[in-house]
Design goal:
homotetramer; 5-stranded antiparallel beta sheet; globular; alpha+beta; 9 helices; 366 residues
């Protein structure tokens, strides 16, 4: 029953979309890490709304205020707390909630889970807005990991079937990993941007939305991180990936396609790299064997469902009066949540892998 | 760094394939649950080798010896420990390990993780044999959950592309859920058995192997179990699913296919069921919204890679001398691990969902 | 490596004495609990400095700002975050730290633990000021528990050897439990106040300090909470009690004195109470047997060392230059931390017992 | 609700006094540690019954059978499971339980906690017999810690008021720490043995029992282990200490006596040791400041209540028929549990401190 994750590096998220503020507490972050605040804000900006050239006051409100755990831009080793104020403050009295469940949203399940007591405006604690403090936490971890030579990047692998090319599965440079994130639209192949923007725009005009797939890659992760059975790299990452709103599937390496292969096709032959390192010639295993990192790039794919908020009228129920009704969700929404989820996937990957590194290496060296 | 899982109901696995014994400790199981031992053994038998009519002495060794936590066939509420003896005992001195990494196996990653100190014979702690005590633990949970009207079943959704039909996604009876497990070959559509056995047999004759997909369904799970962000039903299940050897992908409901849909196609409209219950007309959400159970059937799919052990010669390396070499894995192996993994997927589902139920309901009523 | 505690009800503290703010996140608090904010603030005020009639601006700064998890004075079930601003804000650049270890403080151990990167002004994260958000969290739990008929109170059992009388060990009314907390000086026997104030005042005049003992009592706790071995009520409470600055000993019931008794003296004979309940005639077991609550009052005692901050010159070392030096700690300090620790002990008791109740009962009823 | 402890190094205990077997699973123990089995058995023998020269068949049954995680006397890094068979096997049907609560025992609280379903013969899971697998786990940790130069020892500080001398609080050699454990009766001052044996023997003849205090000391623990607030060395140790049957109080350094001191008396002045190390001239802080190890010897004291099993007739109740009755506990019992608890206290200390070391240092070097 928890918005907390981590064993040594513990991240705790709080807040509701329309409450006073949202935020994160990061407990166990190693002391002595210098944080480049401009870099951190630039990373958080990648998930902020209105990214494409248009600046909005909402963006301002996404500036994290650091309350503890840092001094002079350096981590103290004590809990790091950051708060992000919400633009529209909660009114003193409790806003009347609608009891018409938006299909695809957590309105009804949240009502049952929290007995109708949770603040539902804008999705409340379920809001994708909670990914803002998550990118703050992940941004800190990304900077630490980069200082260790571990690079994490992601791109929009597909949107409603429109495909981007993939990360090279065996020889992957930090530049290649970071490139998509440096673009306004996080893809590898620029031609994919046009095609994806087209399907997204068409969906928007239709008052509809589309799903997509985000591909994450990690290089520089040492071999030997993770454990079999209940502490696998795949499992630990998935536990957190499914916390990103709209994720309905996760796969590593060849993933689901491996189910259609033969062993002779799927096995990755080993070889000795030019630098004398132990490598595999292919990377269907996605950098993980027996739940443990192999030293090859870690490749994960996250499937995002289409944004449930659509203008079209839908059948639903009033879960208080328990009767059928109709609903159509007004207001501007991202017609494809996967786009802004790209940096969130990077953030989550960083939080989990840093925790797993710390489990094996202890309080990490600065 | 752990072969343990669970928050209230804690399952701890131990053992190596060729050590004296393997086993499980289940801590936190509610007191007063009557266990049908014949039913439990029948369930464990589904994953045991040589299931198709042929009885082997190895099977005998899979009989669990219960050391604690049960009295007169009833759970005590104290830790339940069960041990399964291994047929071939470990010799006193440490068996020399081969340093030629079997592609697709954890030989190399385990060597790095455990610094070459782990017992590697037969895969050691990485062996699929560890799923025997896991099915013991899961079997206990399945019986408790059934007494609550919660049914969990699985079937072989596909093998090397040969498809079985799917569980009905909205109206699913306990009978339909349990049916595949009652067959020698766990499928819904009998015609799938022939096609699947054929591709498996062909792979076996070629000294090769094939992958597959296991589909799990759960009915009777009350709405409101789970939490958003880091305690989602999807995430908790995935953490454990990836502990099943050879799993490389997990999806729920429409899963990856949702990434190709529009919101108007993927959203599940709500309605009032004949019994007055709140339901959805379709079930693309796989019974989970916002990480919380909706009361609709929970549907999960697990992608299994082909068995890495194949007769064909493969390129590999000697990870001690760090030089390239060749290997071909001798001996009989399951040419498709997914088949025997079906009950394991049921067991893991039961362990996780029961733990999540207990988090919400506390020490469950007997 | 954690300022977090709890299994179902998770409390996370953050902040430094001289940072921008301190605070707490309470994750897992049951939805639907009405919080009496005046009562909560009155409780927090009991630990605030300058309690005896004198009002100080510092007190103002101890007003918690609730950022999430509550709506209209009712808990939502989502994480509750509260922030308490610090009066003196941190200056942009890092204040130069003194390397002369104050004897009895965590200056040196904190320096090693955090590699000299932690903010040390005013004790930083080690400051007793962190007990402010802890009393906020505990205050929420106390209100929930009272609504269940569970009452928690504490008093100053002794100060530098000056004794207060004890709580009645078997027949204890809520009024008796709450009485000391309603006084300016938390004792049962008013004559103890004079004697204790005298030794405290004398120590203050001498630029010295004194230690004390706080006794906590709990009534209404149902029997059957807790578990043997690693989940005992004593152990769980102690884990948290030792987090209160200056606590060096914890005992339950007869505690250390039991080591001087015979079994025939220490055993508590059982009887049937007037109301037909199962009770013990004496309560040397302090309401806990085998780590599990017996239904009798839970009695705990916490030993506080004298405030380490004293005016007298002391021998110490400079832990950076690693050479011997002298120090005398200037400024006003509580000459007896035990006094203000009384409500903190109540808060900690509430946090732990509510978590243990939730483990057994699940998400508690509102 | 757990017989498990540990964050990185996880120890799980199972078994009932009269069940088939008791045992432990140690998950996360670092690979490559050579275990001296004779030394381990000798350590376990210290807590076994009938230690003074007389060999009994019961003792044989305390031989641990290692089922996993070790190979050729070296730890593998995978879970180490050990089983200790019980002499008298459980009969198939459930032995009728007595409903007359033995005062001072967990009969009644266990009945409520486990709803009358737990195996109660010989105390069941509450039995001090569970400390046998605990000493196995602790024995492994002690050997690892000694290889790191960390020594843990304990002695019987007092029995029914009869005092032994104390460990030197600042200059403490491994020899001094280990000396009491090498004697038949674990004291520092041999004259204490006579006096203690006398009060114990007198109590035995009276069909009564006595309590005592065990003092634990640790040297070689590096400074900087532990954290403030909820992860203190004191708290973590106490959580586990209270799992040792009959412990009712725990203190560190000056402990409760510090409550009667002034700061000028209790503060430990720092100095530079002959070897240039930072030390304190006294050790009232018991090697822990701010919850973090200071590098000085860690000193803890555990108060044990007298054995509740006494021959004298006592008033009690039948908790099923809920009526008053009488009981006198027959059979031979240790008239002072503290004696055999000395190695158990060492074992628990080792398990906790090794886990805390691993949290800070990661998977420890072999």
């Amino acid at each position: 029953m928890s918005s907390q994750i981590g064993n040594i590096l513990k991240v705790s998220l709080f807040g509701e979309s329309h409450g006073p503020a949202i935020g994160a507490v990061i407990d166990g972050f190693p002391p002595g890490t210098e944080i480049d605040m401009q870099k951190l804000l630039a990373f958080m900006k990648r998930r902020a709304p209105g990214r494409d050239k248009t600046s909005t006051p909402r963006k301002e409100s996404d500036l994290p205020e650091i309350l503890s755990g840092m001094s002079g831009g350096v981590t103290c080793g004590t809990p790091i707390a950051a708060v992000i104020k919400n633009a529209d403050q909660r009114s003193g009295d409790y806003a009347k909630m609608s009891a018409a469940a938006r299909p695809g949203h957590a309105d009804y399940t949240g009502f049952v889970r929290y007995r109708g007591k949770n603040d539902v405006r804008g999705g409340g604690h379920f809001s994708a807005r909670l990914t803002a403090p998550l990118t703050f936490a992940g941004g800190l971890c990304l900077q630490y990991l980069q200082s260790r030579g571990i690079f994490i990047g992601a791109h929009l692998k597909s949107v409603h079937g429109e495909e981007d090319s993939s990360f090279p599965e065996t020889d992957l440079t930090p530049q290649q990993i970071l490139a998509p994130g440096e673009k306004d639209f996080p893809v590898i192949d620029d031609s994919a941007e046009e095609r994806m923007r087209a399907v997204i725009e068409k969906a928007r005009r239709d008052g509809d939305s589309v799903g997509g797939i985000v591909e994450v890659a990690v290089t520089g992760m040492p071999a030997g991180i993770g454990s079999p059975i209940f502490d696998t790299v795949e499992g630990r990452l998935s536990l957190a990936y499914f916390g990103i709103p709209a994720v309905k599937g996760v796969e590593f390496g060849a993933g689901f396609s491996a189910s259609q292969l033969r062993g002779s096709e799927n096995n990755d032959a080993y070889c000795i790299g030019a630098d004398g390192s132990i490598r595999t010639k292919t990377n269907h295993h996605g950098g993980i064997l027996g739940g443990i990192s192999s030293g090859m790039p870690i490749i994960a794919r996250l499937a995002f469902k289409p944004t449930p908020s659509i203008g079209k009228e839908q059948d639903t129920i009033d879960f208080i009066r328990r009767e059928e009704t109709k609903i159509s969700v007004a207001g501007r929404h991202d017609p494809c949540v996967a786009v802004r989820a790209v940096p969130v996937a990077e953030a989550v990957t960083a939080v989990v892998l840093m925790d797993m590194l710390m489990e094996q290496e202890g309080m990490l060296p600065d």
